[in-house]
Each structure stands twice: as structure tokens, then as C-alpha cells.
Amino acid sequence: MSYDQGTQLLGKKADELKRLKDENRPAYDAVVQRATWRPMLYRLRAKMETYNDQSRFKGAIMSATPINFATEGKLLWPTSRSTSCRPPTSRRPPSHRSRPSRSSSSRSARSAKRR
């Protein structure tokens, strides 16, 4: 994470955070705690590196911006419409009594078509 992203994420510059950590540890912890639970939109870079036959994960935050919920909602709307989460309908579920009974002639006609 660069200096600018760190400042934006924590809301304080590095020298201010260092002073807080040395002089007032509870205030420093409060700044970090506020940044921990703030919803942000992150752009990440991740890769696996191998050195001396040991694989290591290397990750970095490229940018962190506050979430614009209106924009994100518009982007996700087409996706949510295609999933099984649909709003309830006013139609009543079918009852076993309201179904028309199938006659034996319609069953035999269907079985004849399958052959």
C-alpha cells in the first residue's frame, strides 16, 4: 500500500500515527479500529512467488476508495435479477385440490408419444 492509500484509509499521516502510537496507544488503536470496519472498495494485486523452492504469497493494495453504494447497486442489479433471489409474487401457491385430474387416456397418449 502506498503512502497516499494509507493516509486515505487511516485518515492520518504516517508521522501522526507514529506520534500517536508512542504517546497515546488507546488513541492509536481507535484510529486503526475505525479503519478496520469501514467498508471500502479495494483493488488488489496478488501473486505467488517461488524462491529457493519455497512458494510465498505476495499481496498488495493498489487502491482503496469509499464505496458508492448507488453506483455499485446499479452494477449488481442485472446480476441479482438472474439469480434465484426474486421478489415474492402475489400469486398463491398451487394446491393439490385445484389441479385438474389427469385421465388415463391423456397418460396413455403421452406414453405413446415417447415410444
Quick recap:
The chain is built from five helices and two strands. With 115 residues, it is an alpha+beta fold.
Query: How would a crystallographer describe the biggest sheet?
Result: 2 strands, antiparallel
Percentage of β-strand residues: 15-25%
SS summary, helix count? 5
Number of strands: 2
Termini separation: 67 Å
Overall average pLDDT: 76
Which parts are unreliable, with pLDDT below 50 for 5 consecutive residues or more? Answer: none
N-to-C SSE string, H for helix and E for strand = HHHEEHH
The shape, in one word, is flat
State the strand order across the main sheet.
1-2
Radius of gyration: 29 Å
Helix/strand-derived class? alpha+beta
Textual characterization of the structure:
The protein is of the alpha+beta class and 115 residues long. The chain has a domain at 1-66. 48% of the residues lie in helices and 22% in strands. Strand 1 (40-51) and strand 2 form a beta hairpin. Helix 2 (14-23) packs across helix 3 (25-36). The longest helix has 14 residues, at 69-82.
Key structural traits:
115 residues; alpha+beta; 5 helices
SSE topology sketch:
Elements: H1 3-10, H2 14-23, H3 25-36, E1 40-51, E2 54-66, H4 69-82, H5 104-114
Antiparallel strand pairs: 1-2
Helix pairs in contact: 2-3
